[in-house]
Amino acid sequence: MIIKNRPPDMEAIYHEYFPVIYNYVFYRLLNRENTEDIVSQVFVKVCRHLDTFDPERASLKTWIYRITDHLLIDFYRRQRPVLSIDHEESGLANELHVHFDEQYERIASPTRKAIFAALAQLSERERMFVYYKYFLNITNREIARQLNMNENTVSAVMARARKKLQGILAGEV
Description:
Elements (H helix, E strand, L loop, with lengths): L9 H20 L2 H18 L10 H20 L5 H6 L1 H5 L3 H6 L4 H11 L3 H12 L4 H8 L3 H19 L4
Helix pairs in contact: 1-2, 1-8, 2-3, 8-10, 9-10
C-alpha cells in the first residue's frame, strides 16, 4: 500500500497498480500479448519517470492511468491498417482481423465467455466506460472528471452500452 507524504516505492506501486492496469488495458484491447506489452511499457515509464511525478498536479493513480492512456493511443496509431480491395482478394484482410476464438479458449467459464463475446461487440469507447464503471467501480462523476467530459455524456454512453450488452447477452443482437 502506498502511504501519503512518502516518496512512492516502485515495488509498492507495481504490486498495487499492476492488476488494475493489466485489466484496464486487457478490456480495451482484448488481446493478451498486446496487453502484456503495453503494461510492461507502462511500468518501465513509471519507473523511469517516477522522479518527475508531482503529487500536487495529480494523484499517482491518475498519473499512471495517463501514462497508460498515452501508450494505448500510440498503440492504436501504430495498428491502423490500410486495406485496399486487392488486399481483400489476396486473403491478407483475414490476417488483420482479431481471432476472438483464440481468446475464448483462454477464458474458462461459460459466463465469462459470454461476457467476453458481448464486450467484443462493443466499441472501444463503450468498453472503456464499462471497464471504468463495473471493473473499477468508478462513479459517472469520477469517470467524467477523469476523461474531461460532461457527466451527462458519460451517463448517456453508459446507458447505451448497458442496453447493448443486455441485448447481446439476451441473444437479441
